[in-house]
Amino acid sequence: MGIIRFNVAGVYYYKDGVRAAAKKRKDFALSEEEFRVNHRNGKKVFQYYFSRGSSVALIPEPNNPHDPNAVAVYVNGIQVGHVPAELAPDMRSVLNAGYSAEAFLSGGPRRWVEGSDVLTDSSNMEIAVTVDSPAISDVRKVNPGNAHKASNRKSRTVALILCIFFGYSGAHYFYTGQIGKGLLYFFTVGLFCVGWIVDIFRILSGRFKV
């Protein structure tokens, strides 16, 4: 029995689903005076959280138009994102062997006490998933087949910038070492601009291999 840990990709695009799958902290809506009395100084309280025992399911999407290896992540029966593209191909053996999974939600609206004030802000929601399965031989945070390449992975931000401004010439593919696809984009003007646009969304959702 081993473990894979990963951050769910594309959570930003499933914000409504994340809120629906999560629970709301009742104390988040307290008045400032009540909140100040009930919370110690500096303790951050997030509005949404996944309760202990929340169900987590990994569902293959063979008909996904962007990636036939795509695996959707569901919490409490609601889709909240996808398994990162670099891990998705290796999840088939995990799903076939059986698994258990837990999800932890962070980010979103939060409140905290600072001196005599009650402050509020918000950040992007993130979901961390831990998967246990007999198909996993040890503890991993990257695709086992590509673990030796982890230190050589390119920046997704750089790939996105290159794709936005020079995607028609395949610059993002050349940057990530996918020369064949880069040449294809170069000679077809980003697959007639359609592939260029699709790749921008693939990078943003974490489904583009970098």
Low-pLDDT stretches: 142-153
Please report the total strand number as a whole number.
Answer: 10
Q: H/E series, N to C? A: EHEHEEEEEHEEEHHHH
Helix/strand class: alpha+beta
Assembly category: single chain
Give the termini distance in whole angstroms: 29 Å
Number of helices: 7
Describe this structure in words.
The chain starts with a strand and ends in a 6-residue tail after the last helix. The relative contact order is 0.18. The chain has 7 helices and 10 strands. Helix 4 packs antiparallel against helix 7 and helix 6 (about 180-190) crosses helix 7 (about 195-205). It has about 210 residues and is an alpha+beta fold. It is globular and about 65 Å long. The protein has helices spanning about 15-20, 30-40, 90-95, 155-165, 170-175, 180-190, 195-205; strands at about 1-5, 25, 45, 50, 55-60, 70-75, 80, 100-115, 115-135, 140. Strand 8 (about 100-115) and strand 9 (about 115-135) form a beta hairpin. About 30% of the residues lie in helices and about 30% in strands. Residues about 140-155 have low confidence and may be disordered. The strands form 3 sheets. A 5-stranded mixed sheet has the order 3-8-9-1-10. Strands 5-6-7 form a 3-stranded antiparallel sheet. Strands 2-4 form a two-stranded antiparallel sheet.
Q: Which helices and strands appear, and what pairs or packs with what?
A:
Blueprint: E1 2-7, H1 15-21, E2 23-24, H2 32-38, E3 45-46, E4 48-49, E5 56-60, E6 71-75, E7 78-82, H3 91-97, E8 100-114, E9 117-133, E10 139-140, H4 156-166, H5 171-175, H6 179-192, H7 194-204
Parallel strand pairs: 1-10
Antiparallel strand pairs: 1-9, 2-4, 3-8, 5-6, 6-7, 8-9
Helix pairs in contact: 4-7, 6-7
